[in-house]
């Protein structure tokens, strides 16, 4: 039980966080954002973790009939055309900002070229509002009528619980989007999906972290679409400079904390988020095997 002094400290921490959020929203957020209409009750958010390939191989016919969300570089994989997702979400600033590494420039060009050339079905592409000012992205926004580009506010919202939920519902911000799955869940909740299933979200980076003799922080972030043997590599800040260990750990802390914030928000909306990923490090959501979910639905 908290002491009186701790309660006072907590109150003022939340108060200052709420005031800070209001200032950030005024400066950074775009007001009156609208999302595509949705009448479905459930959706599936596909992460890029290593288990996604096996899930698609086993269940692609079932998945293709569902409302699917995919993220970041999914469009550079063969699964993109196979599964034909309804929603695509990109959050990292390296996807549109200037001054990033050449590797990021090459990968993002390949991605948006693929989206324009391969998307033969209607799909909403969610991007942070600030991305729509990008010189790189502007030429892509009107090249394919099947692509509906939709802005969202990635502004971090923090403070009192009721305050957070109000700003979430108003679409003015979200939990800190340090992993692309966070805004995908948040927007799905605000589009009134009541059951959200997560696939391919291992988030199992922690055991791979190391620091070499040059004080470089290395880790292994394996994706289902990796074709080469993966080696430990550096994590970059905004696609510009390598992160230090405390920055890497802080990013991970905010990611896992963000899932608990989303769990709380989902509860307030009467929605449920289910993690179907085996060996996932996410500890916020109930778990269920994907095959059992599909078996239950086939029996109903």
Explained architecture:
The chain has 300 residues and is an alpha/beta fold. It has one domain: sialyltransferase cstii, chain A, CATH 3.90.1480. 38% of the residues lie in helices and 14% in strands. The strands form three sheets. It has a seven-stranded parallel sheet with strand order 5-4-3-2-1-6-11. The protein has a two-stranded antiparallel ribbon with strand order 7-8. Helix 2 links the parallel strand 1 and strand 2. Helix 6 runs parallel beside helix 7. The longest helix is centred in the first third of the chain and has 25 residues. The protein is globular.
Assign an overall shape: globular
Number of domains: 1
Number of DSSP strand runs: 11
- Which architecture per CATH? Alpha-Beta Complex
* Unreliable spans: none
- For the termini, the CA-CA separation is 45 Å
Structural class: alpha/beta
Sketch the topology as an H/E string, one letter per element: HEHEHEHEEHHEEEEEHEH
Q: What's the main sheet like?
A: 7 strands, parallel
- Count of DSSP-assigned helices: 8
Mean pLDDT: 93
- Side-by-side strand order of the widest sheet: 5-4-3-2-1-6-11
The CATH class is identified as: Alpha Beta
- At the fold tier of CATH, the topology name is sialyltransferase cstii, chain A
What Rg do the Cα atoms give? 19 Å
What proportion strand? Answer: 5-15%
Q: Percent range for helical residues?
A: 25-40%
């Amino acid at each position: 039980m908290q002491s009186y002094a701790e309660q006072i400290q907590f109150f003022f921490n939340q108060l200052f966080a709420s005031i800070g959020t209001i200032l950030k929203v005024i400066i950074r957020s775009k007001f009156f954002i609208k999302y595509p209409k949705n009448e479905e009750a459930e959706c599936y958010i596909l992460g890029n973790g290593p288990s996604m390939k096996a899930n698609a191989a086993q269940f692609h016919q079932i998945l293709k009939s569902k409302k699917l969300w995919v993220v970041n570089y999914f469009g550079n994989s063969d699964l993109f055309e196979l599964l034909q997702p309804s929603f695509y979400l990109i959050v990292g600033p390296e996807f549109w900002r200037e001054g990033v590494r050449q590797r990021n420039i090459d990968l993002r060009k390949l991605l948006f070229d693929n989206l324009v050339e391969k998307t033969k079905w209607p799909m909403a592409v969610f991007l942070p509002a600030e991305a729509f000012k990008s010189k790189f992205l502007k030429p892509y926004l009107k090249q394919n009528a099947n692509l509906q580009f939709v802005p969202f506010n990635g502004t971090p919202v923090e403070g009192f619980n009721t305050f957070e939920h109000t700003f979430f519902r108003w679409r003015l911000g979200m939990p800190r989007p340090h992993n692309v799955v966070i805004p995908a869940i948040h927007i799905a909740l605000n589009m009134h999906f009541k059951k959200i299933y997560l696939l391919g979200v291992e988030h199992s980076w922690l055991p791979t972290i190391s620091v070499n003799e040059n004080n470089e922080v290395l880790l292994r972030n394996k994706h289902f679409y990796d074709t080469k043997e993966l080696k430990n590599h550096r994590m970059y800040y905004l696609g510009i400079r390598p992160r230090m260990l405390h920055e890497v750990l802080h990013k991970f802390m905010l990611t896992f904390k963000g899932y608990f914030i989303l769990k709380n928000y989902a509860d307030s909306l009467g929605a449920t988020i289910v993690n179907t990923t085996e060996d996932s490090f996410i500890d916020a959501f109930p778990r269920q095997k994907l095959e059992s979910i599909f078996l239950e639905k086939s029996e109903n």
